[in-house]
Amino acid sequence: FNHLKGVCIYSDAQFYIYFIVFSVVSAEVLQEVFGYLGSNVTLSSRATPPWNFSKIEWSIFPNSTWIATYRSGRKNTERVDQFKGRLSLNTTSGDLTIHGLISQDALEYTVLLFHQSITVHKIRLKVLQRPVEPSIQMIYTKVQEGRCWVLLRCSSQDEGVDLSWELKPPSDSVYRMTGPGKQGAVLISFSNKEKTEVICTANKTTAKVSAAFTSQCGSSACPRLREGLCFLFGFIAGLLIFLIYCFKDRIGILT
């Protein structure tokens, strides 16, 4: 909405009213912005370029304390102890950046932009804890008929997250499963010689964070043989290792 300010002039001979407009103040709906502890956030003035501001004033609610100003070509971002060394004011756009967010920065901010008119914009900043990176654990892996089968489990410590999977390169053989609470699993199949990156993403309402896992089965001695033969070869190899360990003293005497 707009507020028009003017001056009224009266005459004895005739009643004249001269309404001289000298400023227009435009106000907007309160905007909500999210930021994360320890990170940076930019509060937009929402000004439409190109504007050459004669004055910029950022303040905080409820006492309208100035925290950053631009007046007569001079910029001041060191007005309040809480924000000292943590503010950057863009005098071209009017945007204000807060560095290294702390929980006390969760306030209502107001910016006044002085040009040919005065623009007012209000922002409510919410400071949140950044989501914890999910963890990926390999549960099972197997090589069969030249393909690698891998079962992975992804879990998150955060509440209210949705887990999703992404494969690079994509695979046609992907079987997704959801577990109780904050866990999810995926069973994938890919060529034995390929290297596949599996990404698990924990999505929340306001943010998402991902973890990556690279899976490569490597070569197998019997990818194309039947499982019975593979078991037999493995049994014989294990038996030989066992016999060598048991009779290592005699082997040493003979040598």
UniProtKB/TrEMBL annotation:
The chain crosses the membrane at residues 225-247. It is found in: Membrane. Residues 134-210 form the Ig-like domain. It comes from the Eukaryota. Gene3D superfamilies: Immunoglobulins (2.60.40.10). InterPro entries: CD2/SLAM_rcpt (IPR015631), Ig-like_dom (IPR007110), Ig-like_dom_sf (IPR036179), Ig-like_fold (IPR013783). Its main location: membrane. GO terms for cellular component: cell-cell junction; membrane. Coiled coil: none annotated. Keywords: Glycoprotein, Membrane, Signal, Transmembrane, Transmembrane helix. This is CD48 antigen-like. It comes from Echeneis naucrates.
